[in-house]
Amino acid sequence: MKGIVFTEFLDMVEKKFGIEVVDHIITESKLQSEGVYTSVGTYDFVEMQSLLINLSKKVTIPLDDLIYHYGLYFFNTLIKIHPGIFALYKDPIELLSSIENHIHVQVRKLYPGAELPTFKIEKKTEDELEILYFSERAMYMFAKALMEKTFEHYDQNSQIRLEKIENNGTKVRFLISKKHGAYQKN
């Protein structure tokens, strides 16, 4: 897993819960890297799992909720470091349907060795998208958060439902529909 995912995660934890919680989860996780990450490095996903599990225990927030909130946070990083990708598309359905064949191709060029989930488009219309998500990491709530933020970025309302095809979350169906009208920011 690319280091930027770790560095941004620890940044989020520090901002939301404080540096003491960062120190706690690193210490409790007994990481091979000792919690020292660079954004361009590559690290074992087991370390992210351990950090997430220990954070969940420390702050008593369910794991899926933490992963979802991290996805919301990480979207802002994507906007900062890859604004050109979002400028290429004028519509969230178009962007989301291009994940596998365009966006992930570009990500692999920038980050050789990146292990990304696989997305398969099952159905696509102007207002609806059905995507199958495959990943041994089961970070589908991270993907859901990124999808929601994509609609928000394009000032569009959406409904995104998911169905676990595999109970462990390694295969998930996303049912996405565009709702007409502007996105209402809270």
From TrEMBL:
The Heme NO-binding domain, residue ranges: 2-160
Xref: Pfam families: HNOB
Molecular function GO terms recorded: heme binding
Name of this protein: Heme NO-binding domain-containing protein
Organism the protein comes from: Zunongwangia pacifica
